[in-house]
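Lab channel / #folding
Pinned by the channel admin:
"Please post every new chain as: sequence first, then the structure tokens as a reply. Keep commentary short and put observations after the output so the thread stays searchable."

First post following the new format, from NK:
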Amino acid sequence: MVASRDIHSVRGGESPLSDGKSVPCVVIRGGSSRGLFFHEDDLPQNVSQRNRIIMGAVGAPDPRQVDGIGGADMLLSKVAIVAKSADENIDIECEFANITPGKSRPTFGTNCGNLVAGVALFAIDEGLVSRSDQSSPIRILNRNSGNLIEAHVGPLARDLSADNTTSGMPRSGVCIDLDFIDPSGTVRNVLLPTGCARETFVLGDGRSVDVSVVDAGALYVFARARDFGLCGTETAEQFSANTDAAIALEHLRSMVAHNLGLVKNVSDATRRSPDVPKLAFVGSPADYNCSSDNSVVTAGEIDLVSRIVSSQNFHQAYAVTAAIATSAAAAIPGSVVQEMLGKELLPGLQTVRIGHPSGALTCRIESRLSSGHPEIMRAGLMRTARRVMQGTVVVPNSCY
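Reply from TO:
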């Protein structure tokens, strides 16, 4: 059943000019992302029609998203579809869609770790879970990746000191601590899809570059920033100005996609698999200014610097799944991330501090050795989430 209704009234009167049907919707900021949240029961079961509706709600494919309520930014153009789980061991199931501004269809290939915090808040506010036992986590299954996440919902962010909130995010909302259980293998069911901690690829100009392909939280390709004439502290403007580096990084990502069998030809990857795998370039700790408020992040407060490129777009912040993949890579001996870290992470519970464009974040990583190979047991970090809007979004009739 689709919970939508025709819109025919303006200020209480009839309007034959209205074009749309309303669908219940909530807008939530989760971490450094924002998205539209829908109850699964409020959308049609037919996938094609469902996708047209969420595209219409966001205002895609117009890159400005002016005809919807998307944010015209890849971090703000997302959708979460949420349902109460029938599995007694799971509380909530969710599915995420990324809608890259200017693209004509949503992509459901990966997790959105930031919006998982929003799912926990949505589940409580919408009565999908009970808050009788606040010490128990909300167990969330992400259908995109198969990841199981435990969300511990804490106090209001304003009740905490500045040291306990996360750099690069507003100091408002509810604190939500996320633990991704056994986060490896979202695409190929293994931590190292190539079977090695480090691989060498030859670029179009004949240069050889080392990369680590790691699948934890999401599938990522990690490359040294310096191999592309970068330092890892770039802003979006600086990266956009370096066209050669952007082209080379996308070619590298495309070669990895082909190597993993995700596309038939390297030339197909940008079009057919634009966000799987994702790519990050990493560097040793360095001082830099945040793009969000120009505050200084010093080399002494981070373990490495990293920047993400996804769907051929530079991320203005750092994805939760990227933090998990980066921390997992840091725990793998021989990886390029551990090289930038400059030290070995011992098995057990460790933390990795990542410098990103909007600030710094700390990710917990718990690993162990199994038959001499690293195994990631869990990874987590704290986010905040806040309900921004609630009501209905009017979707054009043409979407139906």
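NK: The longest strand covers residues 373-395.
TO: also worth noting, The domain at 199-383 is CATH 3.10.310.10 (Diaminopimelate Epimerase; Chain A, domain 1).
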